[in-house]
Amino acid sequence: MIRENLEEVEARIQAACDRAGRKREEVTLISVSKTKPVETLKEAYDLGVRVFGENKVQEIREKYEALPKDIEWHMIGHLQTNKVKYIIDKVRLIHSVDSLKLAETIEKEAAKHGIVMDILLEVNVAEEESKFGLKMDEVIPLMEKISGLSHVRIKGLMTIAPFVENPEDNRAIFADLHKLYVDIKEKNIDNGTVSILSMGMTNDYETAIEEGATMVRIGTGIFGARDYSI
Ligand SMILES: *Cc1c(COP(=O)(O)O)cnc(C)c1O
Predict the structure, then answer these.
(1) Which of 14, 91, 93, 105 qualifies as a FRET site for 154, CA 20 to 30 Å off?
(2) Count helices and strands in the chain by DSSP H and E runs
(3) Ligand 1 atom nearest to CA at 218
(4) How far is the CA of 219 from the centre of ligand 1 (A)?
(5) Closest Cα to atom 11, ligand 1: which residue?
(6) How far is CA 216 from CA 54, 176, 177, 203, in A?
(7) Torsion 97-60-129-172 (CA) sign
(8) 128-136 — which CB contacts under 8 Å span 24+ positions?
(9) How far apart are the C-alpha atoms of 122 and 15, rounded to whole Å?
(10) Pocket of ligand 1 (CB under 6 A)
């Protein structure tokens, strides 16, 4: 099933790139494997998947130990400062930074390991109460503060759009975040490191790609529905 799902997702990413006049290489697919057992991830790995997204520190730790070391792990979920130390040397990119305090903790832990951690700032574009993330007008001020940290490198922006039946309903949200992303690049606020716009999930990734996403995070579309009861 994973093979067929991956083929379908791949075809739909390609078609969205074609519609938008973009190159396929501009979009990175992150296979969101949260709640899925190691055997399922291994199956995807054997089909060539190397980029996995997880939202829980404990799951990253366990799966990191159990799976091959050439996997790129992406932390896509809310991250508590006291847990940064457990994943700092395991993940390629943290998508969910939304406070100076978290960035400073990442700075401290990255410095201990002598590494520079790539991060995205999470933006709650729709200002949903239930979601983490910065408001649009908080992004540049926070970016300016974080740019002083030498072990944290801001690579771009991430959003989790509202859950909607019709992906068209999220088009304006993706377009708004893309506009902010372009502004940041043009004004060179980030010293030229910003190149990632992480937006689009199973329900709306094609729309996100049409609006400029460079990373899409797809779980259900690859691995099937999640079971939270076990
Ligand atoms: C679970 C999750 C996804 C994937 O969701 P699907 O709808 O299953 O594709 C993407 N991004 C984040 C931050 C998630 O937590």
Answers:
(1) 14
(2) 9, 8
(3) 9
(4) 6
(5) 217
(6) 13, 17, 14, 11
(7) positive
(8) 128/162, 131/160, 132/78, 132/96, 132/98, 133/96, 133/98, 133/159, 133/160, 134/98, 136/176, 136/177, 136/180
(9) 27
(10) 32, 34, 55, 76-77, 160, 201-203, 217-221
For residue 107, the model assigns a pLDDT of 98
Which atom of ligand 1 has the smallest separation from the CA of 202? 9
- The percent of residues above 90 in pLDDT, for the chain, comes to 95
- What are the mean pLDDT values of the chain's consecutive 10-residue runs (230 residues total)? 97 98 98 98 98 98 98 98 98 98 98 98 96 97 94 97 96 98 88 93 98 98 88
- If you measure from the C-alpha of residue 28 to the centroid of ligand 1, how many angstroms do you get, rounded to a whole number? 15
Q: What is the pLDDT of residue 191?
A: 73
- What does pLDDT average to over the chain? 96
Tell me which DSSP letter residue 165 carries: S
Distance (angstroms) between ligand 1 centre and the Cα of 202 equals 7
> How many CB atoms within 10 Å of residue 105?
21
**Tens digits of residue pLDDT in 130-142:** 999 999 999 999 9
Give the pLDDT confidence score for residue 132 in this predicted structure.
96
Q: Which atom of ligand 1 is nearest to the CA of 55?
A: 15
Helix, coil or strand: residue 168: helix
